[in-house]
Specification:
Low-confidence stretches: none
Number of strands: 12
Order of helices and strands: HEEEEEHHHHHHEHHEEEEEEH
Structural class: alpha+beta
Distance between the termini: 8 Å
Strand content: 15-25%
């Protein structure tokens, strides 16, 4: 399929889905398509552009996993390090046997402050404390506690947001570097990602897109998310930076190839999603494709790199689940075109 044909197909997909956000597709290491649709700020009528910064929601988990695995490489942590050995008396309901590897693989069994099996509708969920009081890992301890174990450590896969916040606490306490700075040092700087950061929602710069709930209207996500994300979400980026991340990950500039191999080894088979899960990455059920995903109030994000088929794509939406139908159609298009 030619670049022109792909462009026509992607333009049609975006229009048919009423997409708001940005799309990028790379083929054989070169940009084949970039496009922006909808509004970054509806009240002011500001159009989305490929240079806007968009929230990635749980896409941040990939950054946390890479940061933690860089610490494992340097001997600052091990995969067998227990959370308890760093947490001390904090979060006493976390089983003493829970390890770094189990937290990374969503197999820790710990109770989750944002349990997606309970809260399926982002509109119905609000944080239990004022969102402006949640900006650092230590501040999140107030919302992480009080949840009993859901299963034995290592017993089964259960997607867990809180586990990645716990990883942020562990990384910060162990390194003695503030978590957000640590992610920048260990991931963003080696990848050359200059437009990626954990922005505060009450201090968003002009290039940051606002997240919206519905297809129309001005209902934004600002009251539904912590003022600054930690560990499990909250990072902002551009499609250009995300593709720099993939380049750096597979070139060994963030973690060594043998470490990456551990991260993309299937640790769980998620049959209900027709996917597998590694350490911080989602894995295709059949191919070698690796992806990171995010969904939250007013945010949708999917980015996939298939090293075998030589394609990568990213879809970031500032309209809730707007990324998913577009992503599935793009994946089907690129797979069929091989």
């Amino acid at each position: 399929m030619s670049t022109l044909e792909i462009t026509d197909e992607l333009q049609a997909i975006a229009v048919e889905e009423g997409f708001s956000g940005v799309i990028r597709v790379d083929l054989d290491g070169a940009v084949a398509f970039e496009g922006a649709y909808g509004l970054a700020h509806r009240g002011l009528g500001v159009a989305n552009t490929i240079d806007h910064q968009y929230g990635l929601a749980s896409g941040a988990k990939g950054f946390t996993a890479l940061t933690v695995m860089s610490m494992v490489e340097r001997g600052e942590l091990t995969l067998d390090t227990t959370a308890r050995s760093v947490l001390g008396d904090d979060l006493p309901l976390i089983d003493d046997r829970v390890t770094i590897e189990q937290l990374l693989a969503h197999r820790s069994g710990i109770g989750d402050y944002l349990d997606e099996e309970v809260f399926e509708d982002s509109l119905s969920y609000v944080m239990p404390i004022p969102v402006h009081e949640l900006a650092t890992p230590e501040q999140y301890l107030r919302v992480l506690g009080g949840y009993p174990m859901k299963s034995e450590p290592g017993e089964r896969f259960v997607y867990n947001n809180g586990g990645y916040v716990v990883l942020a606490v562990i990384a910060e306490r162990t390194s003695k570097v503030p978590y957000h700075d640590l992610v920048d040092q260990r991931v963003c700087v080696p990848a050359g990602m200059h437009d990626t950061a954990f922005l505060r929602s009450d201090r968003l710069p002009g290039r940051a897109a606002t997240g919206y709930f519905e297809n129309e209207g001005l209902h934004t996500n600002i009251l539904h998310l912590p003022v600054r994300g930690v560990g499990d979400g909250g990072i902002y980026s551009t499609t250009a930076d995300i593709h720099l991340l993939w380049d750096a990950v597979f070139a060994g500039r963030i973690v060594a190839p043998e470490t990456l191999a551990m991260m993309v080894r299937p640790h769980s088979h998620c049959e209900e999603m027709s996917m597998r899960n590694g350490l911080g990455f989602w894995l295709d059920a059949v191919t070698d494709a690796v992806s990171i995903h995010g969904f939250d109030a007013g945010i949708g994000f999917v980015s996939m790199r298939d090293p075998g088929a030589q394609f990568a794509y990213s879809v970031i939406s500032n309209k809730g689940r707007g990324a998913w139908p577009v992503s599935e159609r793009i994946k089907s298009l690129l797979t069929t075109a091989q």
